[in-house]
Amino acid sequence: MATEKSGYPQTNKQADVKIRPLADFPPCIWTDRFKPITIDKQVYDMHAKEIEMLKEEVRGMLIKSMKDGTTIHKLNLVDTVEQLGISYHFDKEIDSILHQIFLQNGPSKVVDDDLYATALQFRLLRQHGFNVSSSVFQQFLNSNGEFKETLTKDKRGLLSLYQAAYLRTQDDTILEEALSFATTHLKCGEELETMPSSLAKQIKHALEQSLHRGVPRVEARHFISVYEEDEAKNTTLLRLAKLDFYYLQILHRKELDQIESWIEELKLVSEVPYSRARWVECYFWGLATFFEPQYSLCRILSAKSSVFITTIDDTYDAYGDLDELKAFRDAIERWDIKEADGLPEYMRKTYIALINVVEWMDQEFAKQGMSRSYVSSKYKEEWKRYVRASYTQSKWFLNRELPAFQDYKEAAIITSAYFILAPASLAFMKMGIEEVFDWLAKDPKIVVAASKIGRFINDIASYESEKQRGTTGLECYMNSFNVSEEEAIKKFEEIVEDAWKEINEELLMPATDTMPREILMVFLNLARILDVTYKHNLDGYTDPALVLEPHIVDVLLDLIVL
């Protein structure tokens, strides 16, 4: 039997009870906070009709701007519609406007010698896959190759440059300089007191959370509050944004109620007490991946998958002994409900529930008239791969072994669980997705990049707590390369930044010709929720009060005031 130092669960011979290395996870912070919502159906239906009317008005604005608007008018309108969170209603019109701008201005044209407009055009075009050149910003450099000092007073332009810089790829050296320059001069807060309050609020928020890496619903809620105070606001856009946000909040709360009922029915919280009770956060992750109404089943499956990932991760990291963990691994490999009989009591509930979720998937496919056995097959295979890697890590963890960093990396990217969330997130897409799942089987670059972000940003945030219980990724790196903790953290941060650049590159055409943009956006959004959850290297998933709580309050708990 392993020694106490190994972290291996010990047996108390007097009580004949295993002493397990329990992690001291914070409790659920949402108990009794989500009260039932009472909806006046007549008012709700009236709002739905108003939304449809306003959508047509906004569609008319977009079409009119395409016919006779200036470039900057088009850019501002598209940006406002997108930041208000209503662009999903107008994908066709927005794509047409941006395609028109791209054809007119080409990949590297400065807009009116204006930093704000040039950076805005660059950001919007890149966000939509147009491979515009970052050389457009050379116009704003001085003879020494540095950004001109005169730009430091243009806070609106600097904010636009700052947001654009987050769309950089490996080849965009000038955007590295742009980000540093813009950040430095936006942080000089003397002028914040004298500028319009809406701009000051946007700058303060952007320095905390960049737009490109933010969760779309969180960013929309924030921008609605800022835009409401803007003297130049368009009341039609604002009204549609608020009504649409409210309408979606009601839908999302209904889905959250389904997840809560499922959790209560399974008794996962009461019968698996060692695990983090994070069902609200799990749903929020699904909501962060896609918020639109048509993705309801995708959110439900994503949330359920995240609940299982959390429970099984905690089982392997903080509760089971190696014999138990091996038994669970073998049962998952066989994927047969009869295998539950050979598992410890505390594992049976999770195992049976996971198998039942796959049966639920197949039943839902049948209801939808979808023939998607390949989805269920891929989902099960990814669970098998995940549990195999989890078992490998647990052997290192419990025995305090320090594997070579490359060995750790290969297993740890799998246990980031993004290879499970990928099929879960895409399972109920309305489009034909058999080719998408063939693509997923090859571990595409964008999925691997999102997984790297998930693994290494988590490793940094959870290092202090996990090193008390066993082997960590940072320790593997320090040992393999004989570097300090500070140097290892810096390297992990570099890996994360490089992965972001890979994602940005994969979102540009012609990469988007290989796979629909709708599919690729899933992996961008999965990376975004990581950036938000682990902000400032804090583990906002294990302790939601550190980071996630205010976002969940804004998006789910507190209904927007109409």
UniProtKB/TrEMBL annotation:
Keywords: Lyase, Magnesium, Metal-binding. Coiled coil: none annotated. Its cofactor is Mg(2+). One of its GO terms (molecular function) is magnesium ion binding. It is an enzyme of class 4 (lyase). Residues 30-207 form the Terpene synthase N-terminal domain. One of its GO terms (biological process) is diterpenoid biosynthetic process. It catalyses: (2E)-geranyl diphosphate = beta-myrcene + diphosphate. The keyword rRNA processing does not apply. This is myrcene synthase. It comes from Oldenlandia corymbosa var. corymbosa.
